[in-house]
Amino acid sequence: MYLFTETILSSCPHEDYCRLMTILSLIALFFQTIVAYTLVKEWKTTKSDYTKFLTIIRTSHIFYNLLGSTIGEFRMFLPRKTAVCHGIIRFFGDYACGVSLNIFITFISVESFSVVYAFNGQYNIICRKVNFHKNNLIQLISFGGFIINIFAIFICFNYALLSRDEAIDLWYVPDEELNLYLKEKYALLAFGGPKQYILFVALFFKSLNYIIFFIHYIFILKMMVEFIKKLGEHNKTTSIKNDYTTQLKHHIVNSLLPVIFLYTPVLHTFIMIIFFYEEKYYWYTKPTTNIMVFSVIVYAIVSALYIIFFKYKSLKKQKKVSLKNSKFNKKITAKVQSN
Protein backbone atom coordinates (compact mmCIF):
# COMPACT_ATOMS: atom_id res chain seq x y z
CA MET A 1 0.00 0.00 0.00
CA TYR A 2 1.72 3.12 -1.27
CA LEU A 3 1.16 5.92 1.26
CA PHE A 4 2.27 8.65 -1.19
CA THR A 5 5.92 8.04 -0.34
CA GLU A 6 8.20 5.04 -0.05
CA THR A 7 7.69 3.14 3.23
CA ILE A 8 8.24 -0.35 4.59
CA LEU A 9 4.81 -1.17 3.12
CA SER A 10 5.76 -0.25 -0.43
CA SER A 11 8.66 0.79 -2.66
CA CYS A 12 6.48 1.59 -5.63
CA PRO A 13 8.28 2.27 -8.94
CA HIS A 14 5.33 4.14 -10.50
CA GLU A 15 3.85 6.75 -8.17
CA ASP A 16 0.71 7.70 -10.12
CA TYR A 17 -0.29 4.07 -10.68
CA CYS A 18 0.36 3.15 -7.05
CA ARG A 19 -1.57 6.12 -5.71
CA LEU A 20 -4.57 5.16 -7.82
CA MET A 21 -4.38 1.52 -6.69
CA THR A 22 -4.00 2.55 -3.03
CA ILE A 23 -7.07 4.81 -3.19
CA LEU A 24 -9.14 2.10 -4.91
CA SER A 25 -7.95 -0.54 -2.41
CA LEU A 26 -8.91 1.63 0.56
CA ILE A 27 -12.37 2.25 -0.96
CA ALA A 28 -12.76 -1.50 -1.55
CA LEU A 29 -11.61 -2.29 1.99
CA PHE A 30 -14.19 0.15 3.42
CA PHE A 31 -17.13 -1.40 1.56
CA GLN A 32 -15.88 -4.97 2.05
CA THR A 33 -15.74 -4.42 5.82
CA ILE A 34 -19.33 -3.10 5.81
CA VAL A 35 -20.51 -6.14 3.81
CA ALA A 36 -18.67 -8.61 6.05
CA TYR A 37 -20.09 -6.97 9.21
CA THR A 38 -23.63 -6.95 7.77
CA LEU A 39 -23.45 -10.61 6.75
CA VAL A 40 -22.04 -11.71 10.12
CA LYS A 41 -24.96 -9.99 11.86
CA GLU A 42 -27.46 -11.56 9.46
CA TRP A 43 -25.94 -15.02 9.88
CA LYS A 44 -26.10 -14.78 13.69
CA THR A 45 -29.79 -13.91 13.38
CA THR A 46 -30.89 -16.36 10.67
CA LYS A 47 -28.35 -19.22 11.08
CA SER A 48 -28.79 -19.69 7.32
CA ASP A 49 -26.27 -21.93 5.51
CA TYR A 50 -26.42 -19.62 2.50
CA THR A 51 -25.65 -16.54 4.60
CA LYS A 52 -22.86 -18.41 6.40
CA PHE A 53 -21.28 -19.39 3.07
CA LEU A 54 -21.63 -15.85 1.73
CA THR A 55 -20.07 -14.46 4.94
CA ILE A 56 -16.99 -16.69 4.58
CA ILE A 57 -16.53 -15.77 0.91
CA ARG A 58 -17.04 -12.03 1.39
CA THR A 59 -14.69 -11.97 4.39
CA SER A 60 -12.02 -13.71 2.30
CA HIS A 61 -12.31 -10.83 -0.20
CA ILE A 62 -10.69 -8.61 2.43
CA PHE A 63 -7.64 -10.91 2.46
CA TYR A 64 -7.35 -10.83 -1.34
CA ASN A 65 -7.64 -7.04 -1.32
CA LEU A 66 -4.78 -6.81 1.20
CA LEU A 67 -2.79 -9.37 -0.81
CA GLY A 68 -3.02 -7.23 -3.93
CA SER A 69 -2.62 -3.82 -2.30
CA THR A 70 -0.29 -4.33 0.69
CA ILE A 71 1.27 -7.79 0.88
CA GLY A 72 2.15 -8.34 -2.78
CA GLU A 73 1.46 -5.05 -4.58
CA PHE A 74 2.22 -6.46 -8.01
CA ARG A 75 3.47 -4.63 -11.07
CA MET A 76 3.11 -6.72 -14.24
CA PHE A 77 4.93 -6.23 -17.55
CA LEU A 78 2.80 -8.18 -20.00
CA PRO A 79 3.15 -9.46 -22.66
CA ARG A 80 6.59 -10.09 -21.17
CA LYS A 81 5.78 -12.86 -18.72
CA THR A 82 7.28 -11.24 -15.65
CA ALA A 83 6.30 -8.99 -12.73
CA VAL A 84 7.78 -7.38 -9.63
CA CYS A 85 6.45 -7.28 -6.08
CA HIS A 86 7.04 -4.02 -4.25
CA GLY A 87 4.83 -4.67 -1.21
CA ILE A 88 5.80 -6.29 2.09
CA ILE A 89 6.35 -9.65 0.36
CA ARG A 90 9.52 -8.25 -1.29
CA PHE A 91 11.36 -8.86 2.00
CA PHE A 92 10.64 -12.61 1.73
CA GLY A 93 12.26 -13.18 -1.65
CA ASP A 94 11.37 -13.97 -5.23
CA TYR A 95 9.65 -17.30 -4.63
CA ALA A 96 7.31 -15.74 -2.04
CA CYS A 97 6.53 -13.04 -4.59
CA GLY A 98 5.65 -15.69 -7.19
CA VAL A 99 3.50 -17.72 -4.81
CA SER A 100 1.60 -14.61 -3.65
CA LEU A 101 0.79 -13.65 -7.27
CA ASN A 102 -0.33 -17.22 -7.96
CA ILE A 103 -2.66 -17.06 -4.94
CA PHE A 104 -3.99 -13.76 -6.29
CA ILE A 105 -4.61 -15.31 -9.73
CA THR A 106 -6.22 -18.38 -8.13
CA PHE A 107 -8.70 -16.01 -6.43
CA ILE A 108 -10.51 -15.67 -9.76
CA SER A 109 -11.05 -19.44 -9.91
CA VAL A 110 -12.14 -19.55 -6.26
CA GLU A 111 -14.59 -16.72 -6.95
CA SER A 112 -16.13 -18.58 -9.90
CA PHE A 113 -16.54 -21.63 -7.64
CA SER A 114 -18.22 -19.58 -4.90
CA VAL A 115 -20.65 -17.93 -7.35
CA VAL A 116 -21.78 -21.27 -8.77
CA TYR A 117 -21.88 -22.96 -5.35
CA ALA A 118 -24.08 -20.19 -3.90
CA PHE A 119 -26.43 -20.35 -6.90
CA ASN A 120 -26.44 -24.15 -6.70
CA GLY A 121 -27.31 -23.98 -2.98
CA GLN A 122 -30.28 -21.73 -3.65
CA TYR A 123 -31.38 -24.15 -6.38
CA ASN A 124 -31.21 -26.98 -3.81
CA ILE A 125 -33.37 -25.03 -1.36
CA ILE A 126 -35.94 -23.62 -3.82
CA CYS A 127 -36.30 -26.36 -6.45
CA ARG A 128 -35.09 -29.59 -4.85
CA LYS A 129 -36.43 -28.70 -1.36
CA VAL A 130 -33.28 -29.96 0.36
CA ASN A 131 -30.46 -28.46 2.44
CA PHE A 132 -28.16 -25.79 0.93
CA HIS A 133 -25.20 -28.23 0.89
CA LYS A 134 -27.23 -31.35 -0.09
CA ASN A 135 -25.86 -32.06 -3.58
CA ASN A 136 -26.58 -35.01 -5.83
CA LEU A 137 -23.89 -37.08 -7.57
CA ILE A 138 -23.72 -34.91 -10.71
CA GLN A 139 -23.38 -31.75 -8.62
CA LEU A 140 -20.65 -33.35 -6.50
CA ILE A 141 -18.72 -34.43 -9.62
CA SER A 142 -18.95 -30.89 -11.01
CA PHE A 143 -17.71 -29.31 -7.78
CA GLY A 144 -15.02 -31.98 -7.48
CA GLY A 145 -13.83 -30.96 -10.94
CA PHE A 146 -13.83 -27.33 -9.80
CA ILE A 147 -11.69 -28.03 -6.74
CA ILE A 148 -9.22 -30.28 -8.61
CA ASN A 149 -8.85 -27.57 -11.26
CA ILE A 150 -8.18 -24.86 -8.68
CA PHE A 151 -5.40 -26.91 -7.06
CA ALA A 152 -4.00 -27.86 -10.48
CA ILE A 153 -3.90 -24.19 -11.53
CA PHE A 154 -2.07 -23.16 -8.36
CA ILE A 155 0.44 -26.05 -8.52
CA CYS A 156 1.18 -25.55 -12.23
CA PHE A 157 1.72 -21.81 -11.84
CA ASN A 158 4.16 -22.47 -8.98
CA TYR A 159 6.10 -25.09 -10.97
CA ALA A 160 6.19 -22.71 -13.95
CA LEU A 161 8.09 -20.05 -11.97
CA LEU A 162 11.65 -19.35 -13.15
CA SER A 163 14.60 -18.73 -10.84
CA ARG A 164 15.82 -15.14 -10.46
CA ASP A 165 18.87 -15.73 -12.66
CA GLU A 166 16.74 -17.35 -15.39
CA ALA A 167 14.24 -14.47 -15.20
CA ILE A 168 16.97 -11.82 -15.46
CA ASP A 169 18.65 -13.52 -18.43
CA LEU A 170 15.35 -14.10 -20.25
CA TRP A 171 13.47 -10.83 -19.65
CA TYR A 172 15.49 -8.16 -17.84
CA VAL A 173 18.92 -8.09 -19.50
CA PRO A 174 17.61 -7.80 -23.11
CA ASP A 175 15.06 -5.11 -22.20
CA GLU A 176 16.36 -1.64 -21.25
CA GLU A 177 13.10 -0.68 -19.54
CA LEU A 178 13.01 -3.80 -17.36
CA ASN A 179 16.75 -3.54 -16.70
CA LEU A 180 16.06 -0.48 -14.55
CA TYR A 181 14.14 -2.61 -12.03
CA LEU A 182 17.30 -4.55 -11.20
CA LYS A 183 18.83 -1.41 -9.69
CA GLU A 184 16.23 -1.34 -6.91
CA LYS A 185 15.35 -3.95 -4.30
CA TYR A 186 12.29 -5.64 -5.77
CA ALA A 187 11.25 -9.26 -5.59
CA LEU A 188 10.57 -10.53 -9.08
CA LEU A 189 8.87 -13.47 -10.74
CA ALA A 190 8.82 -14.75 -14.29
CA PHE A 191 7.41 -17.46 -16.52
CA GLY A 192 8.46 -18.79 -19.91
CA GLY A 193 11.78 -20.09 -21.19
CA PRO A 194 12.37 -23.78 -20.41
CA LYS A 195 9.15 -23.91 -18.34
CA GLN A 196 6.88 -22.39 -20.97
CA TYR A 197 4.99 -25.68 -21.42
CA ILE A 198 4.03 -25.74 -17.70
CA LEU A 199 2.56 -22.26 -18.04
CA PHE A 200 0.39 -23.43 -20.93
CA VAL A 201 -0.74 -26.44 -18.88
CA ALA A 202 -1.83 -23.97 -16.17
CA LEU A 203 -3.70 -21.92 -18.78
CA PHE A 204 -5.40 -25.11 -20.00
CA PHE A 205 -6.68 -25.85 -16.47
CA LYS A 206 -7.77 -22.23 -16.16
CA SER A 207 -9.80 -22.57 -19.38
CA LEU A 208 -11.27 -25.85 -18.15
CA ASN A 209 -12.33 -24.08 -14.96
CA TYR A 210 -14.36 -21.56 -16.98
CA ILE A 211 -15.98 -24.32 -19.06
CA ILE A 212 -17.14 -26.15 -15.92
CA PHE A 213 -18.40 -22.83 -14.51
CA PHE A 214 -20.55 -22.00 -17.54
CA ILE A 215 -21.96 -25.52 -17.99
CA HIS A 216 -22.96 -25.85 -14.31
CA TYR A 217 -24.29 -22.29 -14.13
CA ILE A 218 -26.40 -22.51 -17.32
CA PHE A 219 -27.86 -25.85 -16.21
CA ILE A 220 -28.97 -24.41 -12.84
CA LEU A 221 -30.26 -21.22 -14.46
CA LYS A 222 -32.39 -23.27 -16.87
CA MET A 223 -33.84 -25.37 -14.02
CA MET A 224 -34.59 -22.29 -11.89
CA VAL A 225 -36.35 -20.47 -14.73
CA GLU A 226 -38.48 -23.54 -15.52
CA PHE A 227 -39.40 -23.93 -11.84
CA ILE A 228 -40.50 -20.29 -11.49
CA LYS A 229 -42.56 -20.55 -14.70
CA LYS A 230 -44.33 -23.61 -13.30
CA LEU A 231 -45.22 -21.63 -10.18
CA GLY A 232 -47.12 -19.19 -12.38
CA GLU A 233 -48.80 -21.96 -14.37
CA HIS A 234 -50.10 -23.62 -11.21
CA ASN A 235 -51.31 -20.31 -9.73
CA LYS A 236 -49.09 -20.58 -6.68
CA THR A 237 -48.86 -17.71 -4.21
CA THR A 238 -47.79 -14.59 -6.12
CA SER A 239 -45.59 -13.33 -3.27
CA ILE A 240 -43.61 -16.61 -3.24
CA LYS A 241 -43.12 -16.46 -6.99
CA ASN A 242 -41.99 -12.82 -6.73
CA ASP A 243 -39.52 -13.69 -3.95
CA TYR A 244 -38.03 -16.51 -6.02
CA THR A 245 -37.86 -14.26 -9.10
CA THR A 246 -36.05 -11.60 -7.05
CA GLN A 247 -33.53 -14.16 -5.79
CA LEU A 248 -32.97 -15.44 -9.33
CA LYS A 249 -32.33 -11.93 -10.65
CA HIS A 250 -29.96 -11.32 -7.73
CA HIS A 251 -27.91 -14.42 -8.57
CA ILE A 252 -27.81 -13.55 -12.28
CA VAL A 253 -26.41 -10.08 -11.51
CA ASN A 254 -24.05 -11.56 -8.92
CA SER A 255 -22.64 -13.93 -11.53
CA LEU A 256 -22.42 -11.35 -14.30
CA LEU A 257 -20.12 -9.17 -12.19
CA PRO A 258 -17.19 -11.64 -12.16
CA VAL A 259 -17.77 -12.38 -15.87
CA ILE A 260 -17.37 -8.67 -16.65
CA PHE A 261 -14.69 -7.67 -14.14
CA LEU A 262 -12.68 -10.91 -13.75
CA TYR A 263 -13.09 -13.30 -16.68
CA THR A 264 -12.87 -10.66 -19.42
CA PRO A 265 -9.53 -9.25 -18.13
CA VAL A 266 -8.17 -12.79 -17.72
CA LEU A 267 -9.18 -13.60 -21.30
CA HIS A 268 -7.45 -10.39 -22.38
CA THR A 269 -4.30 -11.53 -20.54
CA PHE A 270 -4.45 -14.97 -22.20
CA ILE A 271 -4.70 -13.34 -25.64
CA MET A 272 -1.71 -11.09 -24.90
CA ILE A 273 0.44 -14.02 -23.74
CA ILE A 274 -0.49 -16.35 -26.62
CA PHE A 275 -1.01 -14.03 -29.61
CA PHE A 276 0.13 -10.42 -28.97
CA TYR A 277 3.50 -11.04 -27.35
CA GLU A 278 5.65 -9.47 -30.10
CA GLU A 279 7.24 -6.04 -29.71
CA LYS A 280 5.15 -4.53 -32.52
CA TYR A 281 2.08 -4.86 -30.25
CA TYR A 282 3.66 -3.05 -27.27
CA TRP A 283 1.73 0.13 -28.12
CA TYR A 284 -1.39 -1.74 -26.96
CA THR A 285 -0.12 -4.31 -24.48
CA LYS A 286 1.98 -1.98 -22.31
CA PRO A 287 -0.87 0.42 -21.34
CA THR A 288 -3.13 -2.54 -20.49
CA THR A 289 -0.50 -4.66 -18.75
CA ASN A 290 -2.00 -4.32 -15.25
CA ILE A 291 -5.64 -4.64 -16.26
CA MET A 292 -6.08 -7.93 -14.36
CA VAL A 293 -4.86 -6.55 -11.00
CA PHE A 294 -6.82 -3.33 -11.55
CA SER A 295 -10.00 -5.24 -12.45
CA VAL A 296 -9.86 -7.40 -9.31
CA ILE A 297 -9.85 -4.24 -7.14
CA VAL A 298 -12.70 -2.70 -9.17
CA TYR A 299 -14.65 -5.97 -8.88
CA ALA A 300 -14.18 -5.87 -5.11
CA ILE A 301 -15.74 -2.40 -4.98
CA VAL A 302 -18.62 -3.07 -7.41
CA SER A 303 -19.59 -6.46 -5.94
CA ALA A 304 -19.53 -5.07 -2.38
CA LEU A 305 -21.67 -2.10 -3.42
CA TYR A 306 -24.14 -4.43 -5.12
CA ILE A 307 -24.49 -6.54 -1.96
CA ILE A 308 -25.11 -3.37 0.09
CA PHE A 309 -27.69 -2.19 -2.48
CA PHE A 310 -29.46 -5.58 -2.53
CA LYS A 311 -29.57 -5.79 1.28
CA TYR A 312 -30.91 -2.23 1.45
CA LYS A 313 -33.70 -3.03 -1.04
CA SER A 314 -34.57 -6.25 0.83
CA LEU A 315 -34.74 -4.40 4.15
CA LYS A 316 -36.87 -1.66 2.61
CA LYS A 317 -39.25 -4.28 1.17
CA GLN A 318 -39.50 -6.07 4.54
CA LYS A 319 -40.38 -2.80 6.28
CA LYS A 320 -43.00 -2.04 3.61
CA VAL A 321 -44.61 -5.48 4.01
CA SER A 322 -44.46 -5.19 7.80
CA LEU A 323 -46.12 -1.76 7.69
CA LYS A 324 -48.80 -3.04 5.31
CA ASN A 325 -49.54 -6.02 7.58
CA SER A 326 -49.65 -3.73 10.61
CA LYS A 327 -52.21 -1.45 8.94
CA PHE A 328 -54.27 -4.46 7.84
CA ASN A 329 -54.28 -5.88 11.38
CA LYS A 330 -55.35 -2.52 12.79
CA LYS A 331 -58.29 -2.39 10.35
CA ILE A 332 -59.37 -5.92 11.34
CA THR A 333 -59.08 -5.05 15.03
CA ALA A 334 -61.09 -1.85 14.58
CA LYS A 335 -63.78 -3.72 12.63
CA VAL A 336 -64.06 -6.42 15.31
CA GLN A 337 -64.31 -3.81 18.06
CA SER A 338 -67.03 -1.90 16.20
CA ASN A 339 -69.09 -5.09 15.89
Automatic annotation (TrEMBL):
Keywords: Membrane, Transmembrane, Transmembrane helix. It comes from the Eukaryota. The keyword Electron transport does not apply. The chain crosses the membrane at residues 20-40, 61-78, 98-119, 140-162, 197-220, 256-277, 289-310. This is 7TM GPCR, serpentine receptor class x (Srx) family-containing protein. It comes from Strongyloides papillosus. The lineage of its organism: Eukaryota, Metazoa, Ecdysozoa, Nematoda, Chromadorea.
